[in-house]
Amino acid sequence: MIGFLRLTRPANIVTAISDILGGAAIAWYTGGTHELPSVLLLIVATIGLYGGGVVFNDFFDAALDRVERPERPIPSGLIREKEAALLGTFLLIVGIVAAAAVAVYPSGVIALAIAIAALVYDKWSKHHRVAGPLNMGLCRGLNLLLGMSLVPFALEEFRALAVVPVLYIAAITLISQGEVHGGKSKTMLIAAFLYLVVIASILYSSVLLGNVVYASGFLLILVLLIFPPLLKAFREPVGKNIGKAVKAGVIALIVMNAAWAATFGAFYLALGIVLLLPVSIFLARLFAVT
User: Which residue ranges does UniProt annotate as crossing the membrane (predicted)?
Assistant: First the structure.
């Protein structure tokens, strides 16, 4: 069971749940109702989709991991490749079915798109320096839209906001490309620029919606979480420092989604989302994030 849990990256799954809650805050801003069963189904959906996606990441990387990361569950022999494939398939199916239970369209369709995008990344695009980060970012952007699908009208009005997590995750994925063999300081600068675009976008939205005071507090926490380890990786772009920068970026997704909730006036929901942060940090001490 520990091996299966390691494959699913529990700390990361918590951040995916925050995507759903951030998207829900945007959806409810448009006048949707607080339908708790639907929210819970979408949380189950994102657990399945994210978990299945990262399981297949290790499945497709099994041969490479035997050389670079032999401690992982599959190359270490703890989990067989066939078992990993079955687990990943089961989780993806659960994710799609749970989303479709809310609504075949748009929720189920978005979930299917996430599953396809995750598999394309796992098998092909992650080996491409540009396509990989954009593909991984697409998965997160779609996950935010999945939360927004609680109110289909919200997708029509605010779907462009999905570009923001695309840029954020693209930055993390760029950084992570140097995690094993080391990276370049130039890559950290590009990632820092993308981070700043993300922060500026949320800040601008909060100004337009009149919630800049609330959102600014969460954005400040976001800055304090992501930039110190990124600066260290910039100064010394070795694998260890890059890994810490990636880990910080992934976990800080929770705060970014809290900022979205605050931007759209859901201050108490934003506080609730932030409470996921210590959960993710605790799980990150037990299970690998990257």
Answer: 12-30, 36-64, 84-103, 160-176, 188-207, 213-233, 245-262, 268-288
pLDDT tens readout for residues 217-270: 999 999 999 999 999 999 999 989 999 999 999 999 999 999 999 999 999 999
What residue ranges of the chain have pLDDT lower than 50? none
Within 8 A by CB and 6+ apart from 117, the residues are 135, 138, 139, 142
CATH number of residue 7's parent domain: 1.10.357.140
Structural domain boundaries, residue 105? 2-286
In the prediction, which pLDDT does 232 show? Answer: 96
- Residue 121, CA distances (Å) to 4, 36, 245 in order: 21, 32, 21
Please compute, for residue 35, the number of CA atoms within 13 A of its CA located in the half-sphere on the CB side: 15
**Whether the Cβ atoms of residue 171 and residue 195 lie closer than 8 Å to each other:** yes
* Total domain count, the chain: 1
CA-based end-to-end distance of the chain: 19
